Amino acid sequence: MRDRISYLFSRIFIGRCGFDELSRFLMASVPVPLLLSMLLRKTAGGYISMFFFAVSMVLFVWSVWRAFSSQLYNRKCENDHFLSSSTYHSVSDTVTRLSQMKEYRFFRCRTCRTWLRVPRGKGKIRIDCPKCGNSFITKT
Ligand SMILES: [Zn+2]
């Protein structure tokens, strides 16, 4: 049954762009304006709420439209542009840090703002920044 469903999905996306990083990012962004829309329902006669609802729908439709687009070259260019953007880097770095929070602690170098990763539970240690050489003592 599960194989049949994944087979059907793979058939649907033949010759289509599919959900690349940009489409997944757009889809993952949908709840943000949607939540704002729900929270601001009673503000300014509901117009702000309607605006945020429209934004969330645009993100949703844009994401699905990209996934089903057969203009692969154009979609790939958009995705490459997105992957080289600072938005993608900061989001993916944050996701990576959150997924490693159980095993590691993250500190920011006070001099060069580089993220530094150290294992948890090592007590008080001195951290040397590999980029600028600044060092500080902290608890892990
Ligand atoms: Zn540094």
Q: Topology of this structure?
A:
Blueprint lengths: L1 H11 L8 H9 L1 H9 L7 H22 L3 H12 L2 H14 L4 E5 L6 E5 L4 E5 L6 E5 L1
Antiparallel strand pairs: 1-2, 3-4
The chain binds zinc ion.
The site of zinc ion has 8 residues, from loops.
Task: List the defining traits of the structure above.
6 helices; two-stranded antiparallel sheet; 140 residues; extended; alpha+beta
- How do the helices and strands follow one another from N- to C-terminus? HHHHHHEEEE
What is the rounded distance between the termini? 47 Å
> What kind of sheet is the major sheet?
2 strands, antiparallel
- Overall number of domains: 2
Number of helices: 6
**Structural class of the secondary elements?**
alpha+beta
Associated small molecules = zinc ion
* Global outline: extended
Fraction of residues in H or I helices: 55-70%
Arrangement of strands in the largest sheet = 1-2
Please report which band the strand proportion falls in: under 5%, 5-15%, 15-25%, 25-35%, 35-45% or over 45%: 5-15%
Mean pLDDT: 90
Unreliable parts: none
Number of strands: 4
Radius of gyration: 21 Å
